[in-house]
Amino acid sequence: MNQLHPTRATARRSLTPALSALALLSVLPAAPLAAQTAAPAANNDEVVVLSPFTVSAESADRYHAGEAISAVRVRAPLLDTASSISVITRDMMDDLGPTRVFDVTRYVAGVQEGRGVQFQDRMIIRGFETQNGARTVDNFLQSADADNIVESVIDRIEVSKGPNAILSPAGAPGGSLNIITKSPTFKQQRSFLATVGLFDAQKYMLDLAGPLGDGGKFAYRLVHSAQDSDRYWDDSYVRNRTLAPMFAWRLSDKTLLTLKVIGAEQWLSREPLLIIHPDVTAATKDPYFAPGINPKTNNGIQDWSHVETHSADVFATLTSQLSEKLNLRVAANGRYYYEDSDQNFLSTPGLSNRYNPYTGELTQDSTWALQNTALPHNATTNRYVPTFSPFFNPGNIPNRGDRQDTRRRTFNFQTDLVYNTMLGNTSSQTVAGFGYSRQLAYGRGRTGTMPGIDLSQPDREFYPTYGATFSFFNRNSYANTQLYVNQRFGFFDNRLYLTGGLLRYSTKTVGANVLTGATPAVLDDDKNLWNLSALYKIRENVSLYASRSINASPVIANNQPLWRSGEQDEIGVKSEFLNRKLSVNLAYFEIAQTNVTVPNPAYQTDPTQPQTLVSDLSNKGYELEVMGSVTDNLSLIATWSHLKMRDALGRKVRAVADENATFLANYRIAEGSLKGLAINGGIVYNGRRAGDIPDGNFTQLNVVKQVSFYLKPQYTTTLGFSYRWNERYHTRLVIDNVLDEKHYISVAGGRVTGTGITAMPGRNLRLTTTINW
C-alpha cells in the first residue's frame, strides 16, 4: 500500500502516477473507443461516409440533438427509437459550467441526485441509483469506481432510461449514462478556458485539435485540464488533473481508426461530520442537525481525510463501411484504476436496537430491551422497555481512521456489424455483435485508532495509529461474454418499426475474502436478456411506441453470488416541431428489480455489520420532457416526472422523490448594441425524499421498520450571463443557488456522516473566459 502523508500535501502530487499507469496498460490488449466521423480536410475532395456507429457533429438546436447511439450502439433518430433517450449537448454543458456530471443531467426527466456529492458521479435515474455499474464511457461499461468523469473530456452525454440489454446489460434498470468523449477533428480548433470563483472553481482547460499534415489522412486532439479549488465547507477541496492525447487515421474514405488515451487524477476531501438531531422523526417537515454541528465546517473531520484516485484509459476504435449495406465496428478498451484513501469515519453505535419494537419507529437516543414488567394484581409480563442512551456524546464522538487501496485492471473488447437492406417494401436493419470483458481487482485496508471528536474543539489535529495487519482484504474478478443480435423491420415506408433483440450473457464472477481464507463465492452462469418494441409514426413528426426490456448484473453481495435482474414496460409518444428543433416526449413506465444491492448505513460506523443490504424494488411513473428551441433566440428544457418508487414492504426508497420538475432556458441577443449577450436560468424541484434506509426489515416483534426522517422539498437555482465578443473571446458568469438558500439538509442516505448526508452550500459565483484561435 502506498504510504499517505497525513497532510493535505498528499493531494498535491503531479500527474506522474497516472502517466505511469498508462505504461502498465501495455500488458493489456490494445484498447478502443467509439469513433466519431471526421470531416474531410479542406484540400481533400474525398467524400467521407458518416459511420452508423457515430452521431453527426451538428445538433438540431443548442439543447436538442436529433440522434443518439445508446439504444444498440448504432446511430438512430430519437423520433424513431422506441425508448427514452435524452441527450445533453456540449452547448448546454458550456452554458452551465458544471463541476460534475450531475450539474447538467439534473435537467433530464427522471434524473435525481444520488447519495453524496463527492464521487462516483452518483445519481438516480427513474428511482434507481447508478453507482453499481451504470456509467458507460464511449460504449464501455465502467465499474463503480470512486472517480468522477472530468467535464473537460466530454463531448456529449446520452441518458438511456430503463434497462438496456445491449448497451449496458449489467447496468441499473433505471437507466445508464453513456458519456461520449471528445475526438480528433480534421478541422483546426484551439481554445483555452480559465474559471475562477468562490468555490468549486479555479480550473483551466487547453483543447487543441486539427489535421496532421496536408493529406487529410491524419488528425489529432490534445485535451489538458487541471483544477485546484476549495469547496464551500472549511478545509474541503476538490483537485483533479487530466491529460488526453488522441489520434485519428482515415485509412480510406470509408474506414477510420481512432486512438484515445485519457489519464486522470483526482483528490476529494472527505465530507464534514454531520449528525441528525435526535428529535427529528418522520413527521419533521424540515430536519435539522444535532447541537454543536456547524453545517459550514468540518466539525472535527480532519483535513487530511480524503479519497485519491488515479486512472488511465486507452480506447481504440476502427469503423469501416465494408459494402453499401454492411458496416463494421471493432473496439477495445483497457483501463487501469487505483484508489488510495485515508479517511476519517465515525464509529457511533449501531441503530438496530434503537427501533421501537411495537411501531418500527427509530428512537435515536433510546435503546429497547426485553424486561420483566410488573402488572396489577402481582402479575408480570415480558415487555420491551426503552432506556435513555444518547446516540453520541458531543464531547467525545467515537471515530476511526481507514486507509484503503483498491486496484482494478479491466480489458473490454467489442465488435459490431450492422446490415441495412430492403426486403421488398420492408426495410431491415440487423445489428449483431460480440463483447468480452475481463477484470482483476482487489481492495484492502487498515483501521486506525483515534481520540474522540470534541465538537467544542473541532480544529484539534490528530492522526490515527494504524495496525500492522489488514482489517479487510478482498479479491474479485469477472470474465463476461456477450453475444447479441438486434433486428428492426420498417413497414409502410418506415411508418411502423418492429424491433427485437436477444443477448446471451455469460459470466464467471468471483469474490474472495483473503483474510478468512473462506471458499470464494462464485457465480458461473448464463442469462438470456431481450427487448421487444413497436413504434408507429402517426405523422412524420409524431411517434407512438411501446417496449419491454430486461437486463441482469452478476454481483457478489455479503459473499453470496446473485443475479441482480431488472425489467421494464414502457409506452410513450414522441414528437418534434418547429423544423424538428423542438422535441416533446411523454412516457409511462413500470420497472422492477430483484436483489438490489445498496451499502448498509450501519456498516459505515460498525464494520462488523453486513456491508450490503439486498432487497427487491419496484417503480412506476410518468415523464414529460421538452427540449429544443421555440424561436431562433430562445432554447429551453422543461421536464416533469411523477414516480411511485417503493421497496417490497411498501416503504419509500431513500433519496428518491415522487415529484420532480426542471426548467432551463437560454436567450441569445443576435442584433443591436447587445449583440453577443446571452442569459440563461434554471430551476430544479425535488419533492419530499426519504432520508435514510432502515438497517433491517423487521423489529423483534415482526413490525416493519420505518424510514426515520424525510427531506423537505427542495428548489435548486442557477443564473448565467455570457458575452461573445467575437469568434475569439467568450466570457460567462454562472451564479449557483441564486437565492442563497443554504445549510439545510439537501441530500441524505442516513442519519450520520459517511452515508451521503450533505448540507446545501451557499451562493456561488464562477467566471469563465474562453479564448479561441
TrEMBL record:
Subcellular location: Cell outer membrane
InterPro entries hit by this protein: Beta-barrel_TonB, Beta-barrel_TonB_sf, Plug_dom, Plug_dom_sf, TonB-dep_rcpt-like
UniProt KW keywords: Cell outer membrane, Ion transport, Iron, Iron transport, Membrane, Receptor, Signal, TonB box, Transmembrane, Transmembrane beta strand, Transport
Pfam families associated with the record: Plug, TonB_dep_Rec_b-barrel
UniProt domain TonB-dependent receptor-like beta-barrel: residue ranges: 358-738
GO cellular component: cell outer membrane
Tagged with keyword Transmembrane: yes
Leader sequence residues: 1-34
Domain called TonB-dependent receptor plug: residue spans: 78-175
GO molecular function: siderophore uptake transmembrane transporter activity
Entry-linked PROSITE patterns: TONB_DEPENDENT_REC_3 (PS52016)
Membrane topology, as annotated: Multi-pass membrane protein
Annotated PANTHER family: FERRICHROME IRON RECEPTOR-RELATED, FERRICHROME OUTER MEMBRANE TRANSPORTER_PHAGE RECEPTOR
Family per record: Belongs to the TonB-dependent receptor family.
Name of the protein described by the UniProt record: TonB-dependent receptor
Organism of derivation: Oleiharenicola lentus
